[in-house]
Amino acid sequence: QQIVWNIGYDDKFIYLAMHSPHKKGTYPVARCKANDDMGVLFEDHVEIQICPHARKEATRPGKGFYKMMVNPKGFMIDQYLYNGTVGTEELWSTGGETKCLVTEEFWDLEMSIEIARLGVQKLDGRSLVIQLVRTDWCGGVYFAGWAPCAWLEWNKFAEVSFDPAAPVFQFSKAGEVMAGDLDAVINLKGSAPEARDVQISVQIDNAEGKTVYSEKQAASVKAGENKTVSFKKSGIPISSVNFTDKGRNFFEMRAVYKDGPK
Fold this sequence. Notes:
It is a single chain. Helix content is 0%, strand content 46%. By secondary structure, it is mainly β. Strands 3, 4, 5, 8, 9 and 10 form a six-stranded antiparallel sheet that branches. Strands 1-2-7-6 form a four-stranded antiparallel sheet, with no helix packed on it. A three-stranded antiparallel sheet has the order 11-12-15, with no helix packed on it. Strand 13 (196-205) and strand 14 form a beta hairpin. It is globular and about 50 Å long.
């Protein structure tokens, strides 16, 4: 099922929201009923990792990174890993709130993290390296990661830049890409008084490395404006691969905006 994450921030908190649909009549599994219970790792949960330093310093003692795991009941483990003092990892807290809602059709999660507890004073003009994961357990069959890699592969995680003038991008759906059916929707919302030009591209490569779909679209948004950009294509020749195959199909949606000459 397509997982949707939203990220926002203000002067005090960074906010994360997740929407995880499931087939009606099925439910995510959560047994843990207390915070700081490592059993969360072995049931349905989300994992959020944030590093305010350079990627190579994420596993350097004294620098490190922040990790949160939350189950569908809303119970959480929040840790400051590689902080330089072994045994104190779980003394760290997000300083915010975490809430979950589970229905017959979806699991929604909302979380706030106090910016100062990430060791930074403000987010405007800087970036954080972030990984977001939804999984059924740490070694489970279902693993939906923002970056498809192991938990300490910091060189592959996304870097999120916090720019108050940048348009808001929401990648709301992708379709069944691995079945050859693209149905991508990107929502844009302007933030700056002046219009910002945005270029959105979608590319799909098969497991042999051949580009089987590529398209670009342009849009322009300013404060108060909302626009939607769509990409739709059926019958894309996706390669059939097994779990043990080295080759993988590749899917990328990218949005870039221009701020003057930048």
